[in-house]
Every structure is written in structure tokens, then in C-alpha cells.
Amino acid sequence: MENIKEKDIQALKILAALILAVVFMSSAASAANLKVDPAAEGGYTTIQAAVDAANAGDTIFVSPGTYVENLKINKQVRIWSDSRNPGNTIVEPVDPAENTVEITAERVTFSGFGVGNSEKAGILLKGAKSCYINNNRVQNAEYGILLQDAESNNINGNIITLNEIGLKLEDSGSNTVQDNLIAYNYGPGTSLEESSRNIFFNNYFKNAENVEDNPVNADNTWQSTLTVKSNLIKGPYIGGNFWADLEGTGYSETCADENSNGICDASYAVAGGGTDKSPLFPKVRSGVTALENKLDAGTYELGMETRGVEGNETGTPANETEETGETDEGNDTAEPEESEENAAPGPGIGFTVLAAGAAYFLKRKA
Question: Which of 4, 11, 316, 335 is surrounded by the most beta carbons within 10 Å?
């Protein structure tokens, strides 16, 4: 009798495994790849058309070009630029009074695009969960990236620059913000409103106000567990964030690192009560220069002049001088290994920022 029961149990296990395999294969078979390429026969001419035609789980590949559309993503899809280069795959709004890209679904991937020129948000995540926003350059918007009632999203490896506010979280929790350049925004680089349990680490902050002063900042985490891995300024540890300012006197630019481990010896007090316990120090001086080369301090200065505000000096950081004759320590440090979805921030976007940005801010001032 016992042998019969054991055989029955074994048969049930095998049947369950077969059912799961069939379900998995059916799901994998149903996912499709869609192509956006206005020049190709049979390709979709707009990203929105591909999103509308896609089923949940599909992947959309977008050829280089400029796509003028207010993109609304309301289903679980992955949208990648073919080149993984935000400089040659650009989304600009047909109506600048609306968000350029609006995501309202779960598990959306949006990676490799230049986005901006909006009087609202460059990228809005509204009620979105578990989305992956990676390797985009977002600029010239009221909010570069805006999260509203959004949870468990990963904002990773983006350049967020030349916006009124770089990154804003409203009623949004448990999000991860890592590996981003949040720099040269006209207002706060980051602003949190009724948002807690978020984690910020390995970001490069360089704004007149890096984090808007708010008590809720203390309810968020400003570093990860210290891990031996190359960080975004080529230091040996992943830990907290790099805190710079426009005068070259930011905390990470002036802190002490007596044990030469690339981490400031003392914690950094984030505005509003938060604390970065492992702020990054520029152990490898060329790491900061490499990041600055991806940014555009000149356009920031122009935007400040357009506003009638005297710009700050944005030249060589305070502890990176040509006269010292110092050699970079660890210039041969290998870049972190990255997957296609977790690519490093791309090169500069081909926006016509000088003209469009000036007109935009003159209009706002009027």
C-alpha cells in the first residue's frame, strides 16, 4: 500500500512539472519583438503605435532617430533603443505642455533614450510599480523624472540634467535610485514629498541644491551596504553618493579620506535630517572628469543668464588641479561589468538646447 502511495505521489510530481513546463513555454512563445523603424518596410513608424500593438511581455526595439510624440505606456513592455545611445534615439513631445513619456503600468523597461523639452515631466511614473528606467538622458523639463504614487521602481544609470527639478518623488516608496548623474539642474537635484523607504546610492550630485530640505529625507536611505566593486567615480567601493557643488567645495570634494579607501572618513548630513554614512571620495581623480565630460556646464550657465541669475563657476573641481602634477591613482581600474539593460549613462543628447532652452526659460519668466 505504501509503495502504491509513493508511486502516486511521484506521478503527481512529474505531472506538475510537465504542466509548469508547458505554461512556461506557452508564455515564452507568446512574447514577441516589435520593431520601430520609419525607414523599414513593415516597421512601426512611431513608438506609440508599437506600444498600442504590443501584448504584455513584448519587447519593442527602436531605431535611432527623433520621435515627436507624447508617449503613453500603459502595459508591461520593454522598450529599448537599438543603439543603447540616448544621443541618437530621442523622444520629444508633440505637445510640450504634457509629459514627454508617461508610464502607468507595472514592470515596464524604458532604456537608452534622450527625453525632454516638456513643461511637465520628461519621464513620469504614475502608479507604476517595478519598472526599470535606465540609461536615459532627461533634460529641459519641469521635472526630469517624476514619480507619483510609484513603488519598487529602479531609476538606474540616467543623466538627469538642465531641468527645473531633476528627480522628484511624490507619495512614492521603496524605490531604488542608483548610478545616476543628477547634475546642473536649475532647482533641486532631488526633491521628496511624502516619500519614504527609498534608497539612494552611487549617484553623482552636483547642483546648487542637491537635495531639497525636507524632514522626510530622514525616512530614506542614502547609501547601500559597503561593497567591493568599482563605483561611478572609479573608486573601489559601492557605498554612498558623490556630493559636489557648483563651486567645487561640495562635501565629497573637500572631505578627508585618511585611509585612502575612496570613502569619506565622516558621514554627510543630507538636508532635512538624512545621513549618507559612506559618501564617496574622488580617489581616482579622472573618474570625476569622465563624468563631467558627459554633462554640459555651459548650457547650464546660459540658462542661468537667461533667467537673469549670475551663474556659478563650474570649472575644475577644488581638489583636481593641473598644477599639482599628481598622477591618477588607479587609472587602469576596469569599468564595472554591465548588462545590456544596466548600461552606463550614454553620451550627450542631440537636443537643440541652446535655442530651445533659452526660449523655454524666457517664456517661463514672462
Answer: 316
